[in-house]
From TrEMBL:
<feature type="transmembrane region" description="Helical">
    <location>
        <begin position="106"/>
        <end position="124"/>
    </location>
</feature>
<protein>
    <submittedName>
        <fullName>GtrA-like protein</fullName>
    </submittedName>
</protein>
<feature type="transmembrane region" description="Helical">
    <location>
        <begin position="72"/>
        <end position="94"/>
    </location>
</feature>
<feature type="domain" description="GtrA/DPMS transmembrane">
    <location>
        <begin position="14"/>
        <end position="125"/>
    </location>
</feature>
<feature type="transmembrane region" description="Helical">
    <location>
        <begin position="12"/>
        <end position="31"/>
    </location>
</feature>
<dbReference type="InterPro" id="IPR007267">
    <property type="entry name" value="GtrA_DPMS_TM"/>
</dbReference>
<keyword id="KW-0472">Membrane</keyword>
<dbReference type="InterPro" id="IPR051401">
    <property type="entry name" value="GtrA_CellWall_Glycosyl"/>
</dbReference>
<dbReference type="GO" id="GO:0005886">
    <property type="term" value="C:plasma membrane"/>
</dbReference>
<dbReference type="Pfam" id="PF04138">
    <property type="entry name" value="GtrA_DPMS_TM"/>
</dbReference>
<keyword id="KW-1133">Transmembrane helix</keyword>
<keyword id="KW-0812">Transmembrane</keyword>
<dbReference type="GO" id="GO:0000271">
    <property type="term" value="P:polysaccharide biosynthetic process"/>
</dbReference>
<comment type="similarity">
    <text>Belongs to the GtrA family.</text>
</comment>
<feature type="transmembrane region" description="Helical">
    <location>
        <begin position="43"/>
        <end position="60"/>
    </location>
</feature>
Length: 136
């Protein structure tokens, strides 16, 4: 029962901080898009969101005590993949389908949040997750 409670709490925290990361990403994107192309704004927003996400995932969601560099490099690698996913969705929706860029950004972020949770739980912070599960 405790494992189910831990998983529920972890998912809740991930969704909370994932939502905040999405908000950071969208606000950063919007601010950047006022003075630059949507592709550049997407990359700038990604940088800000990745830093925010790493800190909150490490400290609050997965409560990792491992060395930051040990986790940051795989985290960054996974987030680079999500950047390509984000940019791909943006280009398809804005350039191909002629949709509003903010709508495209929201759609991209939904896909990215799902991908990032899977990558974080099963690859990046897996040692911390396993340690907590074994301690229960």
């Amino acid at each position: 029962m405790k494992n189910k409670q831990q998983l529920t709490k972890e998912i809740f925290l991930y969704l909370l901080f994932g939502g905040l990361t999405t908000l950071v990403n969208i606000v950063s994107y919007y601010g950047s898009s006022l003075f630059t192309d949507y592709r550049v704004a997407t990359i700038l927003a990604w940088v800000v969101a990745v830093l925010f996400a790493f800190i909150t995932n490490k400290l609050y969601v997965f409560r990792s005590e491992n060395a930051s560099t040990k986790e940051f490099l795989p985290f960054l690698g996974a987030r680079v993949l999500s950047l390509f996913m984000d940019l791909g969705v943006m280009i398809v929706f804005v350039d191909l389908f002629k949709q509003d860029d903010l709508l495209a950004k929201i759609i991209a972020n939904v896909l990215v949040v799902i991908f990032n949770y899977i990558a974080s739980k099963f690859f990046i912070f897996k040692d911390s997750v396993q340690e907590r599960e074994n301690a229960s």
